[in-house]
């Protein structure tokens, strides 16, 4: 029974690797780490549950038997990580700017509609 169970687990589960932020000798590094899961989404949840939500640096990638971890993902240098963070911050700022412009244009449109409704309302003479 035990051998059959392990065979089923080994055929259903795949190995995934991802980069995890870790402090090594006082400096922050991206360390390649592996987990076994059924799909990439489950692998992501496992990485986040084990190492923390913000520790996941890259998306999980399935490991095939003929490739090693270093062939799949090479750790990013601190300069590359800084550029990635700056690009993400720029994208967030652009999204915030667009949403604020949309909010203000909707507010102007509502004000215009409100003023049109007031001017078009017929008055009943007494």
Write a compact overview of the structure shown.
The protein has 126 residues and is α+β, with helices and mostly antiparallel strands. The chain contains 4 helices and 3 strands; from the N terminus they run αββαβαα.
Supply database-style keywords.
126 residues, alpha+beta, Ubiquitin-like (UB roll), 2 domains, three-stranded antiparallel sheet, 4 helices, 3 strands
Q: Can you walk me through this structure?
A:
56% of the residues lie in helices and 19% in strands. It starts with a helix and ends in a 6-residue tail after the last helix. It has a three-stranded antiparallel sheet with strand order 2-1-3. The chain has helices at 2-12, 40-51, 69-72, 78-120, and strands spanning 14-24, 27-37, 61-62. Strand 1 and strand 2 form a beta hairpin. The model has no long low-confidence stretch (mean pLDDT 84). The chain folds into two domains: 2-73, Ubiquitin-like (UB roll) (Roll), CATH 3.10.20; 77-113. It is built from four helices and three strands. With 126 residues, it is an alpha+beta fold.
List the helices and strands and how they pair.
Elements: H1 2-12, E1 14-24, E2 27-37, H2 40-51, E3 61-62, H3 69-72, H4 78-120
Antiparallel strand pairs: 1-2, 1-3
CA-atom Rg in angstroms: 27 Å
Unreliable stretches (pLDDT < 50, length at least 5) are none
Query: How far apart are the first and last residues' alpha carbons, in Å?
Result: 93 Å
Number of helical segments with 4 or more residues: 4
- Let me know the average pLDDT: 84
**Beta strand count:** 3
Q: Numbering strands along the chain, what is their spatial order in the largest sheet? A: 2-1-3
Strand content range: 15-25%
Helix coverage percent of residues?
Answer: 55-70%
Number of domains: 2
- CATH fold group of the largest domain: Ubiquitin-like (UB roll)
- Estimate the global geometry from the Cα principal axes: elongated
The secondary-structure element order is HEEHEHH
> What is the CATH class designation of the largest domain?
Alpha Beta
| Largest sheet report | 3 strands, antiparallel
Give me the CATH architecture of the largest domain, please: Roll
**Structural class by sheet pairing and helices:** alpha+beta
């Amino acid at each position: 029974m035990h051998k059959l169970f392990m065979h089923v687990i080994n055929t259903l589960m795949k190995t995934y690797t991802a980069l995890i932020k870790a402090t090594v000798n006082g400096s922050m590094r991206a360390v390649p780490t592996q987990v076994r899961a059924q799909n990439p989404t489950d692998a992501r949840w496992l990485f986040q549950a084990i190492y923390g939500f913000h520790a996941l640096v890259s998306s999980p990638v399935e490991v095939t038997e003929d490739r090693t971890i270093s062939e799949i993902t090479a750790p990013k240098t601190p300069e590359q990580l800084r550029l990635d963070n700056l690009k993400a911050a720029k994208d967030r700022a652009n999204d915030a700017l667009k949403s604020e412009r949309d909010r203000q244009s909707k507010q102007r449109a509502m004000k215009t509609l409100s003023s049109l409704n007031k001017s078009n309302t017929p008055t009943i003479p007494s």
